[in-house]
Amino acid sequence: MSQKLKIAGWISVGALAGALTTVSLQTAARGSLAPLPLEELQQLAAVFGMVKSDYVEPVDERKLITDAISGMVASLDPHSQYFDKKSFKEFREGTSGRFVGVGIEIAQEEGLVKVVSPIEGSPAFRAGLQPGDLITKIDDVAVKGLTLSEAVKRMRGEPQTKVMLTIYRKDESRTFPVTITREEIKTVSVKGKVVEPGYGWIRLSQFQERTVDDFVRKVEELYKADPALRGLVLDLRNDPGGLLDAAVAISAAFLPEGVTVVSTNGQLPESKFVYKASPEFYQRRAGADPLKRLPAALKTVPLVVLVNEGSASASEIVAGALQDHKRATILGSQTFGKGSVQTVRPLGPDTGLKLTTARYYTPLGKSIQARGIVPDVLVDESEEGNVFAILRTREADLVKHLGNDKSPEAKDPLREKAREEAMRRAEEESRKPVAERAKMPEFGSDKDFQLKQALNQLKGRPVLISKTQVVEEKNAKKEN
């Protein structure tokens, strides 16, 4: 591994901070600091003094300072965050894929906590929480006014303890409580099967430390079950991201050795880097390259990658690399659009700062930030259409999101019109009896419409392309 890469350390490209978020640690700080704005710092000190002496009741000095730091960092973008002792410990635990909680990826929306994705098999998943659900209360505490970190703290706890979440489900226009028993979440990030003779399906739900080893084992199982696979579907739907080196490794599993997977660029010299499909760019430990165990056929087997609005960051790196190198057909919906890299620097023995330090770019130099990967084949999530998917939050919808430096952002009137139509349809759907409301089938099941279309693509059969999806054509034409 190069010295430059060692300095950069482990880099996180997870979608959003939440009840489970993976990240890396970086201990290198900038070598020099810009001149400090003394007048503004004097004002800060003056405000601190006034609050301490004049506020209606005594205040905790340390909390004042911590809140000031948190506010400063939170004002930058939705992914930068200050970690106190407890949240820093929880954040580091996320890289191993083991923690005690309810098992959801979350983001903040309009002061509430939004469920990005329940982790498959978790208590939240079993309780029926869905992407897009808004958490309005945690036990008896209103979420409005809590930081994302504070909300996470309240959902975490000891194993076998209970937490009650009050959920507002937009598309059903109803609020309801859900009591969930916390447990240790041992996330299995890779699953797969032979869906029919000659065709395999592998799903990655997130990118963790164990993802590469689990992926290799699952591929070995598939080829053992059917040595003559004629096609493979890599399912990245609702995969919120995770560790960059895992994304590079998964890309390298399908690409020729040495080609570019992704590049990053930011202010720091170590943030300007190109990651290639070679072991030194994804191996963490000394020893044999885990990808060497993969069957050689994986490099050439026809491949379709499934993505949707919940595919973010590390998922977009993989999809973008396989698309740019024409190794796979990308099928589904336009992805989330998180094209930024966060690093975490310890500020002491038990606190840290997660900071956006770079944008990342596909091998052809396209920035995905606030735009996402546009599939080669747009396919709806059901035969009836994709009308409700447009209501899901994407990076471009987040307040203070980082802009795309390759193409200007603009409101797309077609997209806005589609959102209005989706809202109307959602209201109609919410008035139906619960038993009659449309429900999405489980990924990988025989009712999975997009998976069926992916198999049709692999077999050269007609694919039912989207009836409803809208892509920002101005930017698409400029970058393609």
TrEMBL record:
<dbReference type="GO" id="GO:0004175">
    <property type="term" value="F:endopeptidase activity"/>
</dbReference>
<dbReference type="GO" id="GO:0030288">
    <property type="term" value="C:outer membrane-bounded periplasmic space"/>
</dbReference>
<dbReference type="GO" id="GO:0007165">
    <property type="term" value="P:signal transduction"/>
</dbReference>
<dbReference type="InterPro" id="IPR055210">
    <property type="entry name" value="CtpA/B_N"/>
</dbReference>
<keyword id="KW-0378">Hydrolase</keyword>
<dbReference type="InterPro" id="IPR005151">
    <property type="entry name" value="Tail-specific_protease"/>
</dbReference>
<dbReference type="InterPro" id="IPR029045">
    <property type="entry name" value="ClpP/crotonase-like_dom_sf"/>
</dbReference>
<dbReference type="InterPro" id="IPR001478">
    <property type="entry name" value="PDZ"/>
</dbReference>
<dbReference type="GO" id="GO:0008236">
    <property type="term" value="F:serine-type peptidase activity"/>
</dbReference>
<dbReference type="InterPro" id="IPR036034">
    <property type="entry name" value="PDZ_sf"/>
</dbReference>
<dbReference type="InterPro" id="IPR004447">
    <property type="entry name" value="Peptidase_S41A"/>
</dbReference>
<dbReference type="Pfam" id="PF22694">
    <property type="entry name" value="CtpB_N-like"/>
</dbReference>
<dbReference type="Pfam" id="PF13180">
    <property type="entry name" value="PDZ_2"/>
</dbReference>
<protein>
    <submittedName>
        <fullName>S41 family peptidase</fullName>
    </submittedName>
</protein>
<dbReference type="Pfam" id="PF03572">
    <property type="entry name" value="Peptidase_S41"/>
</dbReference>
<keyword id="KW-0645">Protease</keyword>
<comment type="similarity">
    <text>Belongs to the peptidase S41A family.</text>
</comment>
<keyword id="KW-0720">Serine protease</keyword>
<feature type="region of interest" description="Disordered">
    <location>
        <begin position="402"/>
        <end position="446"/>
    </location>
</feature>
<feature type="domain" description="PDZ">
    <location>
        <begin position="88"/>
        <end position="170"/>
    </location>
</feature>
<dbReference type="GO" id="GO:0006508">
    <property type="term" value="P:proteolysis"/>
</dbReference>
